[in-house]
Each structure stands twice: as structure tokens, then as C-alpha cells.
Amino acid sequence: MTAITLVRGDITEQPVDAVVNAANSTLLGGGGVDGAIHRKGGPEILAECRALRAGRLGGGLPTGSAVATSAGRLPARWVIHTVGPVWSTKEDRSALLESCYRESLQVARDVGARTVAFPAISTGVYRWPKADGARRAVTTVRAKVAAAGAFDEVRFVVFDQDTHDAYQAVL
Ligand code: AR6
């Protein structure tokens, strides 16, 4: 059984095997969770991201995909970078958001991570509605961990009270 838990706090302080980063396609950093992870994790993470860009991810990491690097000085072993979709009222991009959770867990499983922390992907700079983001995060993770059976804990780590309430309502 995988424990699915909710914590209000800073994802960079979670002592888990893998923390998921809400990155962008360049993999070269940004604000929000991404900025916090690179700031606290140190230059080793960015160096690995640059190496990926110089190699098999020359075109960047596609939206909905995920890739692992080491976690530098974070109290984790891996950072799993994923790129959420920017919210759109014209187009339904929810399959891409769900793909972020599924692909991140697939990568986590591939590296051997048993505890994984997720931020609320796309719900900050990318403006995805918090309640819908929470519902898709929880349902997608539940389905994937039931199928994969490889995790001890998947932890949702949220910053603000609204997001916390949204996750609590779904959980
Ligand atoms: N720990 C946990 N949650 C956090 C933290 C933290 N340290 N910091 C912010 N949040 P965002 P996105 C929450 O904007 O919407 C970057 O520039 C935040 O309150 O980090 O996927 C990237 O480079 C919100 O609820 O990610 C991309 O360009 C959630 O994490 C773009 O932003 C996600 O907010 C990605 O935007």
C-alpha cells in the first residue's frame, strides 16, 4: 500500500527520495518551485539540466514529460523535472497535466525512488485552477500507484491555504 499524504510547507525541505519540480521546457530554471529548488539545491542540478539539453533533450523537455537529475544539496536523492501545461480557456490541456503526474511517477520508479513529493504542478505561474489541479493530481496519482505498486509514500506539498483546502477536499 502506498500512503498518499498532504503537507503544507516547502518542497525543498522534504526528506524524500525524489522531489518533483514544476519546471519549464528549457530546464534552465525559473521562478516558483523551480527557482526554490535550484536556489537551495545548488549548481549541480543546473549543470545536469544543461548536460541533458546538450544531449538527448536538445529541443527541451516536452510538456507532460519528466526527467530525473540528482538533487544537489537538497535532502532528497533525485529531482524529477516535469513541465506542466499553461492554463488555457480555449483548449483542454488536462491530459498533459495528468501526464506530468504519471510520467514523474514512472521516472521515480525507474530510478528506484520509494518516496516522492509533488508540488501543485501548473497552479502557480501557469495559472491552472487550484481545485481542478488538485483533483487531477490526486486521481492520477492514485491510479498510477495502484498500477505500479512501487512506492511507500507519495506526498503532496502545498504552499498556500487555498491549495491545501483543495487537496484536503479531494483526499
Ligand atoms: N514548495 C512548495 N510549493 C511551492 C513552492 C515551494 N518552495 N514554491 C511555490 N510553490 P509554480 P507552475 C507552489 O509557479 O504553475 C516557473 O517559473 C505555488 O504556490 O512554481 O507549474 C517554472 O520555471 C503553486 O501552488 O509552477 C515555469 O516557467 C505551485 O507551487 C513555471 O514557473 C506551482 O507554482 C511553472 O509554473
Salient structural properties:
171 residues, alpha/beta, Leucine Aminopeptidase, subunit E, domain 1, six-stranded mixed beta sheet, 5 helices, 40% helix, globular, binds ligand AR6, Macro_dom, Macro_dom-like, Macro domain-containing protein
Tell me the count of domains.
1
Which structural class do you get from the secondary structure elements?
Answer: alpha/beta
Order of helices and strands: EEHHEEHEHEH
Placed side by side, the strands forming the largest sheet appear as 1-6-5-2-4-3
Query: Roughly how much helix do the residues carry, as a percent range?
Result: 40-55%
Domain Macro: 1-171
InterPro entries: Macro_dom, Macro_dom-like
Pfam family, one: Macro
Protein name: Macro domain-containing protein
Provide an overview of this structure:
The radius of gyration is 15 Å and the shape is globular. Helix 4 (130-148) crosses helix 5 (161-170). Strands 1-6-5-2-4-3 form a six-stranded mixed β-sheet, sandwiched between helices. The model has no long low-confidence stretch (mean pLDDT 97). It is built from five helices and six strands. The protein has helices spanning 32-41, 43-54, 94-111, 130-148, 161-170; strands spanning 3-8, 18-23, 66-70, 78-83, 115-118, 153-158. It has one domain (3-170): 3-Layer(aba) Sandwich (Leucine Aminopeptidase, subunit E, domain 1). It is α/β, with parallel strands linked by helices. Ligand AR6 binds at residues 10-12, 22-24, 30-34, 36, 84, 119-126, 157, 159-160, 163.
Short description:
By secondary structure, the protein is α/β, with parallel strands linked by helices. 40% of the residues lie in helices and 19% in strands.
